[in-house]
């Protein structure tokens, strides 16, 4: 038998129910401390009201009371790092959707590129660009060639019709004799 390493022998996993119970106990403890700081009214309050407030305010206070667990000596030493950006979560009601949106450099360049393309297409359709002028000249040449080809076809068709009519006349004249 092959035995595992010494690191994995004593692993213990906590169940989700235990984690939920611990979180609720921490929240309640924090609430009691807040109430005691405010004036001690929460200590004499009704326990049923506290349970109701737990259930109703769970989603609101999850965002406010939740603080990331500090690692190492962070909990002991208060660090002021000006480069460190604290992540603050905003509620939907706090979002400012009407204010001017600042675009990144890439977004600005993309918008400018689209506008330039639209301007070029307008100029092109109006026939003001060099490419449009070249295209129109080429189209004019092609139209002339097609008109000449159509005129030649028409003349050939008329010539064939006349030849066929002349042949029929000769045939009808020879039959009438």
UniProtKB/TrEMBL annotation:
Q: Where is the composition biased (Basic residues)?
A: 1-10
InterPro entries to which the protein is assigned, alphabetical: Casein_kinase_sb_PP28, HAP28
Sequence ranges of Acidic residues compositional bias: 56-65
**Chain residue ranges for the region called Disordered:** 1-113, 147-177
* Composition bias, Basic and acidic residues: 46-55, 98-113, 147-163
Tell me where in this chain the Casein kinase substrate phosphoprotein PP28 domain is found.
81-158
Q: What is this protein called?
A: HAP28 protein
UniProt gene name: Pdap1
